[in-house]
Design goal:
379 residues, alpha/beta, Rossmann fold, 14 helices, phosphoethanolamine N-methyltransferase, SAM-dependent_MTases_sf, transferase
Length: 379
Protein backbone atom coordinates (compact mmCIF):
# COMPACT_ATOMS: atom_id res chain seq x y z
CA UNK A 1 0.00 0.00 0.00
CA UNK A 2 1.01 3.63 -0.45
CA UNK A 3 -0.38 5.10 2.78
CA UNK A 4 -1.44 3.82 6.21
CA UNK A 5 -3.39 5.91 8.75
CA UNK A 6 -3.51 5.03 12.45
CA UNK A 7 -5.38 7.02 15.10
CA UNK A 8 -5.30 6.19 18.84
CA UNK A 9 -4.41 2.54 18.31
CA UNK A 10 -0.89 1.92 19.61
CA UNK A 11 -1.76 3.37 23.02
CA UNK A 12 -3.95 0.32 23.67
CA UNK A 13 -1.23 -2.21 22.83
CA UNK A 14 1.57 -3.61 24.95
CA UNK A 15 5.16 -2.87 23.92
CA UNK A 16 5.72 -6.20 22.19
CA UNK A 17 2.46 -5.77 20.28
CA UNK A 18 3.44 -2.25 19.17
CA UNK A 19 6.80 -3.50 17.91
CA UNK A 20 5.17 -6.40 16.07
CA UNK A 21 2.61 -4.10 14.46
CA UNK A 22 5.28 -1.65 13.31
CA UNK A 23 6.98 -4.61 11.61
CA UNK A 24 3.77 -5.54 9.79
CA UNK A 25 3.10 -1.95 8.75
CA UNK A 26 6.63 -1.72 7.35
CA UNK A 27 6.11 -4.90 5.35
CA UNK A 28 2.76 -3.73 3.95
CA UNK A 29 4.05 -0.39 2.67
CA UNK A 30 5.61 0.07 -0.74
CA UNK A 31 9.05 1.73 -0.82
CA UNK A 32 8.54 5.49 -0.20
CA UNK A 33 5.09 4.69 1.24
CA UNK A 34 4.01 6.70 4.27
CA UNK A 35 2.59 5.94 7.72
CA UNK A 36 0.64 8.52 9.74
CA UNK A 37 0.18 7.92 13.49
CA UNK A 38 -1.61 9.87 16.20
CA UNK A 39 -1.35 8.89 19.87
CA UNK A 40 -2.06 10.23 23.35
CA UNK A 41 1.27 10.47 25.15
CA UNK A 42 2.61 10.97 28.67
CA UNK A 43 -0.70 11.14 30.56
CA UNK A 44 -4.48 11.07 30.23
CA UNK A 45 -5.82 14.06 28.29
CA UNK A 46 -9.02 14.60 30.28
CA UNK A 47 -9.76 14.63 34.00
CA UNK A 48 -12.62 12.11 34.01
CA UNK A 49 -12.18 9.43 36.67
CA UNK A 50 -12.09 5.92 35.21
CA UNK A 51 -12.48 2.65 37.03
CA UNK A 52 -10.28 0.88 34.47
CA UNK A 53 -8.05 2.45 31.86
CA UNK A 54 -6.34 0.12 29.37
CA UNK A 55 -4.26 2.94 27.87
CA UNK A 56 -0.44 3.01 27.84
CA UNK A 57 0.53 6.69 27.98
CA UNK A 58 4.05 6.43 26.60
CA UNK A 59 6.63 9.13 26.09
CA UNK A 60 6.88 10.09 22.39
CA UNK A 61 10.50 8.92 22.49
CA UNK A 62 9.29 5.37 23.16
CA UNK A 63 7.38 5.29 19.87
CA UNK A 64 10.46 6.70 18.13
CA UNK A 65 12.58 3.92 19.63
CA UNK A 66 10.09 1.34 18.33
CA UNK A 67 10.09 2.45 14.70
CA UNK A 68 13.81 3.29 14.59
CA UNK A 69 14.72 -0.23 15.75
CA UNK A 70 12.97 -1.89 12.81
CA UNK A 71 14.30 -3.08 9.49
CA UNK A 72 12.64 -5.29 6.91
CA UNK A 73 13.57 -9.00 7.02
CA UNK A 74 16.40 -8.52 4.53
CA UNK A 75 17.60 -5.45 6.42
CA UNK A 76 17.23 -3.05 3.51
CA UNK A 77 14.24 -0.96 4.58
CA UNK A 78 13.13 0.88 7.70
CA UNK A 79 11.11 3.90 8.77
CA UNK A 80 12.37 7.44 8.36
CA UNK A 81 10.78 10.38 10.20
CA UNK A 82 9.37 13.12 7.96
CA UNK A 83 7.93 15.11 10.84
CA UNK A 84 6.35 14.86 14.26
CA UNK A 85 4.53 17.48 16.30
CA UNK A 86 1.97 18.07 19.01
CA UNK A 87 -1.54 18.69 17.70
CA UNK A 88 -1.94 22.46 17.72
CA UNK A 89 -5.69 22.45 18.47
CA UNK A 90 -5.10 20.59 21.72
CA UNK A 91 -2.37 23.04 22.73
CA UNK A 92 -4.56 26.03 21.89
CA UNK A 93 -7.85 24.79 23.37
CA UNK A 94 -6.68 22.61 26.26
CA UNK A 95 -3.06 23.63 26.90
CA UNK A 96 -2.20 19.99 26.14
CA UNK A 97 1.10 19.10 24.42
CA UNK A 98 0.51 15.37 24.70
CA UNK A 99 -1.49 14.64 21.54
CA UNK A 100 1.30 13.78 19.12
CA UNK A 101 1.34 12.91 15.41
CA UNK A 102 4.10 11.35 13.30
CA UNK A 103 4.53 11.02 9.54
CA UNK A 104 6.97 8.22 8.67
CA UNK A 105 8.24 6.96 5.33
CA UNK A 106 9.54 3.56 4.29
CA UNK A 107 13.06 4.05 2.95
CA UNK A 108 16.25 2.14 2.29
CA UNK A 109 18.41 2.22 5.38
CA UNK A 110 21.82 3.84 5.17
CA UNK A 111 24.85 3.21 7.32
CA UNK A 112 24.52 4.30 10.93
CA UNK A 113 26.16 7.69 11.65
CA UNK A 114 27.96 6.29 14.71
CA UNK A 115 28.33 3.00 16.59
CA UNK A 116 25.29 2.14 18.70
CA UNK A 117 22.85 4.56 17.07
CA UNK A 118 20.18 3.95 14.45
CA UNK A 119 19.76 7.35 12.76
CA UNK A 120 20.87 10.97 12.80
CA UNK A 121 17.99 11.79 15.12
CA UNK A 122 19.13 9.01 17.45
CA UNK A 123 22.72 10.27 17.19
CA UNK A 124 21.74 13.81 18.16
CA UNK A 125 19.41 12.83 21.01
CA UNK A 126 21.80 10.27 22.54
CA UNK A 127 25.05 12.14 22.13
CA UNK A 128 25.33 15.85 21.35
CA UNK A 129 21.81 16.87 22.37
CA UNK A 130 20.89 14.69 25.30
CA UNK A 131 18.56 16.48 27.72
CA UNK A 132 21.44 17.10 30.12
CA UNK A 133 23.60 18.52 27.32
CA UNK A 134 20.82 20.86 26.22
CA UNK A 135 20.42 22.18 29.76
CA UNK A 136 24.17 22.80 29.93
CA UNK A 137 24.11 24.63 26.59
CA UNK A 138 21.16 26.69 27.79
CA UNK A 139 23.03 27.56 30.98
CA UNK A 140 25.93 29.00 29.01
CA UNK A 141 23.92 30.67 26.20
CA UNK A 142 21.02 31.96 28.31
CA UNK A 143 17.44 30.87 29.01
CA UNK A 144 15.70 29.39 25.92
CA UNK A 145 18.87 29.67 23.77
CA UNK A 146 21.26 26.99 22.50
CA UNK A 147 23.17 28.92 19.81
CA UNK A 148 26.20 31.20 19.77
CA UNK A 149 25.76 34.47 21.60
CA UNK A 150 22.23 33.77 22.84
CA UNK A 151 19.93 36.80 22.93
CA UNK A 152 22.67 39.30 21.99
CA UNK A 153 23.40 37.81 18.56
CA UNK A 154 19.71 37.01 18.03
CA UNK A 155 18.84 40.69 18.41
CA UNK A 156 21.66 41.69 16.06
CA UNK A 157 20.84 39.19 13.32
CA UNK A 158 17.06 39.49 13.45
CA UNK A 159 17.45 43.25 13.07
CA UNK A 160 18.87 42.57 9.58
CA UNK A 161 15.57 41.02 8.46
CA UNK A 162 13.20 44.00 8.93
CA UNK A 163 10.41 41.72 10.12
CA UNK A 164 6.81 42.91 9.87
CA UNK A 165 3.68 41.79 11.77
CA UNK A 166 1.89 38.90 10.10
CA UNK A 167 4.94 37.53 8.29
CA UNK A 168 5.69 33.80 8.34
CA UNK A 169 9.13 32.60 9.46
CA UNK A 170 10.72 29.14 9.24
CA UNK A 171 13.38 28.56 11.90
CA UNK A 172 15.53 25.62 10.74
CA UNK A 173 17.09 23.83 13.69
CA UNK A 174 15.38 26.21 16.11
CA UNK A 175 16.37 24.23 19.21
CA UNK A 176 14.48 25.16 22.38
CA UNK A 177 12.86 28.22 20.86
CA UNK A 178 14.81 31.30 21.96
CA UNK A 179 15.01 33.00 18.57
CA UNK A 180 11.45 32.03 17.66
CA UNK A 181 10.06 33.45 20.91
CA UNK A 182 12.02 36.67 20.39
CA UNK A 183 10.73 37.13 16.82
CA UNK A 184 7.13 36.28 17.67
CA UNK A 185 6.92 38.47 20.77
CA UNK A 186 8.77 41.49 19.40
CA UNK A 187 7.67 41.58 15.77
CA UNK A 188 4.28 39.84 15.62
CA UNK A 189 5.41 37.15 13.17
CA UNK A 190 4.35 33.49 13.21
CA UNK A 191 7.29 31.11 13.45
CA UNK A 192 7.49 27.44 12.50
CA UNK A 193 10.39 25.74 14.28
CA UNK A 194 11.73 22.46 12.88
CA UNK A 195 14.45 20.52 14.68
CA UNK A 196 15.59 16.93 14.28
CA UNK A 197 16.20 16.48 18.00
CA UNK A 198 13.06 15.35 19.84
CA UNK A 199 14.79 16.31 23.09
CA UNK A 200 15.06 19.90 21.85
CA UNK A 201 11.42 20.11 20.83
CA UNK A 202 10.18 18.53 24.05
CA UNK A 203 12.02 21.20 26.02
CA UNK A 204 10.92 23.92 23.60
CA UNK A 205 7.25 23.12 24.29
CA UNK A 206 7.92 23.56 28.01
CA UNK A 207 9.74 26.85 27.40
CA UNK A 208 6.86 28.08 25.20
CA UNK A 209 4.49 27.73 28.14
CA UNK A 210 7.01 29.44 30.38
CA UNK A 211 7.32 32.53 28.14
CA UNK A 212 3.64 32.55 27.14
CA UNK A 213 4.02 31.73 23.43
CA UNK A 214 1.02 29.85 22.05
CA UNK A 215 0.58 27.93 18.79
CA UNK A 216 -0.73 31.04 17.04
CA UNK A 217 2.76 32.49 17.52
CA UNK A 218 5.20 29.55 17.40
CA UNK A 219 4.68 25.99 16.13
CA UNK A 220 7.23 23.25 16.85
CA UNK A 221 8.00 20.17 14.75
CA UNK A 222 10.44 17.30 15.10
CA UNK A 223 11.66 16.78 11.57
CA UNK A 224 14.54 16.57 9.14
CA UNK A 225 14.84 19.80 7.15
CA UNK A 226 16.39 17.87 4.25
CA UNK A 227 13.24 15.75 3.92
CA UNK A 228 10.41 17.94 5.22
CA UNK A 229 8.17 19.42 2.54
CA UNK A 230 6.22 22.66 2.85
CA UNK A 231 4.13 24.27 0.09
CA UNK A 232 6.12 26.44 -2.30
CA UNK A 233 6.38 30.10 -1.33
CA UNK A 234 5.16 29.52 2.24
CA UNK A 235 7.58 31.75 4.17
CA UNK A 236 8.67 35.37 4.12
CA UNK A 237 11.86 34.60 6.05
CA UNK A 238 13.98 31.51 6.72
CA UNK A 239 16.35 31.70 9.68
CA UNK A 240 18.90 29.16 10.88
CA UNK A 241 21.50 29.31 13.64
CA UNK A 242 24.52 26.99 13.78
CA UNK A 243 22.83 23.75 12.65
CA UNK A 244 23.41 23.29 8.92
CA UNK A 245 26.92 22.15 9.89
CA UNK A 246 25.30 18.71 10.39
CA UNK A 247 24.21 18.49 6.72
CA UNK A 248 26.54 17.16 4.05
CA UNK A 249 24.53 18.10 0.94
CA UNK A 250 24.06 21.77 1.70
CA UNK A 251 23.26 22.70 -1.91
CA UNK A 252 20.20 20.44 -2.01
CA UNK A 253 18.98 21.95 1.27
CA UNK A 254 19.50 25.50 -0.01
CA UNK A 255 17.49 24.70 -3.15
CA UNK A 256 14.68 23.36 -0.95
CA UNK A 257 14.74 26.48 1.24
CA UNK A 258 14.69 28.62 -1.90
CA UNK A 259 11.48 26.87 -2.99
CA UNK A 260 9.85 27.46 0.41
CA UNK A 261 10.52 31.23 0.32
CA UNK A 262 8.12 33.72 -1.19
CA UNK A 263 9.50 35.95 -3.98
CA UNK A 264 11.57 38.64 -2.30
CA UNK A 265 11.89 36.47 0.82
CA UNK A 266 14.99 36.61 2.98
CA UNK A 267 17.36 33.94 4.26
CA UNK A 268 19.72 34.37 7.20
CA UNK A 269 22.11 31.67 8.41
CA UNK A 270 24.91 31.56 10.95
CA UNK A 271 27.03 28.43 10.96
CA UNK A 272 30.27 26.84 11.98
CA UNK A 273 32.82 26.95 9.17
CA UNK A 274 36.44 26.00 8.62
CA UNK A 275 39.55 27.47 7.08
CA UNK A 276 40.40 26.58 3.49
CA UNK A 277 43.18 24.11 2.84
CA UNK A 278 44.59 21.24 4.91
CA UNK A 279 43.54 20.73 8.52
CA UNK A 280 45.27 19.13 11.48
CA UNK A 281 44.46 15.57 12.51
CA UNK A 282 43.09 16.92 15.78
CA UNK A 283 40.62 19.17 13.94
CA UNK A 284 39.57 16.40 11.56
CA UNK A 285 38.94 14.08 14.53
CA UNK A 286 36.78 16.74 16.20
CA UNK A 287 34.71 17.26 13.04
CA UNK A 288 34.22 13.52 12.58
CA UNK A 289 33.23 12.93 16.21
CA UNK A 290 30.65 15.71 16.03
CA UNK A 291 29.22 14.61 12.69
CA UNK A 292 29.98 18.00 11.11
CA UNK A 293 30.39 18.95 7.45
CA UNK A 294 32.21 22.28 7.47
CA UNK A 295 33.03 24.64 4.61
CA UNK A 296 35.05 27.86 4.36
CA UNK A 297 32.74 30.91 4.52
CA UNK A 298 33.34 31.91 0.89
CA UNK A 299 32.59 28.39 -0.37
CA UNK A 300 29.43 28.35 1.75
CA UNK A 301 28.24 31.60 0.20
CA UNK A 302 28.88 30.37 -3.33
CA UNK A 303 26.50 27.46 -2.72
CA UNK A 304 23.77 30.00 -1.93
CA UNK A 305 24.50 31.70 -5.27
CA UNK A 306 24.34 28.33 -7.00
CA UNK A 307 20.96 27.58 -5.37
CA UNK A 308 19.50 30.67 -7.05
CA UNK A 309 19.65 33.27 -4.29
CA UNK A 310 20.59 36.87 -5.05
CA UNK A 311 22.17 39.67 -3.02
CA UNK A 312 24.21 37.04 -1.19
CA UNK A 313 26.41 38.39 1.59
CA UNK A 314 28.99 36.04 3.15
CA UNK A 315 30.77 37.30 6.25
CA UNK A 316 33.54 35.67 8.25
CA UNK A 317 32.45 36.47 11.81
CA UNK A 318 35.25 34.52 13.50
CA UNK A 319 36.57 37.57 15.34
CA UNK A 320 33.12 38.08 16.87
CA UNK A 321 32.92 34.35 17.62
CA UNK A 322 36.22 34.47 19.51
CA UNK A 323 35.01 37.44 21.54
CA UNK A 324 31.76 35.61 22.41
CA UNK A 325 33.68 32.51 23.48
CA UNK A 326 35.92 34.57 25.72
CA UNK A 327 32.87 36.13 27.42
CA UNK A 328 31.12 32.78 27.78
CA UNK A 329 34.18 31.18 29.37
CA UNK A 330 34.56 34.06 31.86
CA UNK A 331 30.86 33.92 32.73
CA UNK A 332 30.99 30.15 33.21
CA UNK A 333 34.01 30.41 35.50
CA UNK A 334 32.31 33.18 37.45
CA UNK A 335 29.18 31.01 37.91
CA UNK A 336 31.10 27.89 38.88
CA UNK A 337 29.11 27.28 42.07
CA UNK A 338 25.81 27.47 40.15
CA UNK A 339 27.02 24.72 37.81
CA UNK A 340 28.01 22.57 40.77
CA UNK A 341 24.57 23.07 42.31
CA UNK A 342 22.49 22.55 39.13
CA UNK A 343 24.68 19.85 37.55
CA UNK A 344 27.92 18.55 39.06
CA UNK A 345 31.64 19.20 39.03
CA UNK A 346 32.31 16.81 36.13
CA UNK A 347 29.67 18.50 33.92
CA UNK A 348 31.18 21.90 34.71
CA UNK A 349 34.69 20.71 33.88
CA UNK A 350 33.63 18.98 30.65
CA UNK A 351 31.73 22.07 29.48
CA UNK A 352 34.54 24.47 30.30
CA UNK A 353 37.17 22.22 28.70
CA UNK A 354 34.98 21.94 25.59
CA UNK A 355 34.68 25.72 25.33
CA UNK A 356 38.43 26.21 25.81
CA UNK A 357 39.12 23.57 23.14
CA UNK A 358 36.78 25.45 20.82
CA UNK A 359 38.59 28.68 21.64
CA UNK A 360 41.92 27.03 20.75
CA UNK A 361 40.60 25.79 17.39
CA UNK A 362 39.40 29.31 16.61
CA UNK A 363 42.70 30.88 17.66
CA UNK A 364 44.58 28.42 15.43
CA UNK A 365 42.39 29.56 12.55
CA UNK A 366 40.91 26.15 11.71
CA UNK A 367 37.42 26.69 13.13
CA UNK A 368 35.54 29.70 11.85
CA UNK A 369 32.07 31.19 12.11
CA UNK A 370 30.12 32.50 9.16
CA UNK A 371 27.08 34.73 8.73
CA UNK A 372 25.14 34.53 5.48
CA UNK A 373 22.33 36.68 4.13
CA UNK A 374 20.51 36.10 0.86
CA UNK A 375 17.24 36.88 -0.92
CA UNK A 376 14.95 35.15 -3.37
CA UNK A 377 14.41 37.23 -6.54
CA UNK A 378 11.10 39.09 -6.67
CA UNK A 379 10.37 37.72 -10.14
Amino acid sequence: VDFIFSNWLLMYLEDKEVLALFGKLLSWLKPRGQLFIRESCRCQSGNKTRGANPTFYREPEQYEAFYESLTSPCGLYGFNLLFSKAVQTYIKRKNNNNQVVWLLQKVKKIDSPAPGVQSWQDFLDKQQYSTRSILLYEKIFGRTFVSTGGLETTEEFVDMLNLCPGQSVLDVGGGIGGSAFYMAKNFGVKVTVIDLSSNMIKMALDRAQEVGCGPDEVVFEVGDATKREYPAESFDVIYSRDVILHIADKLSLFKKLYKFLKPGGKLLISDYCCSPGIHSEEFKAYVKQRGYYLLPPLTYGKLLDKAGFVNVVSEDRTEQFEDILRKEIKRTERNKEEYFKEFDEDCYKDLLDGWKDKQSRVQRGEQRWGLFYAEKPTA
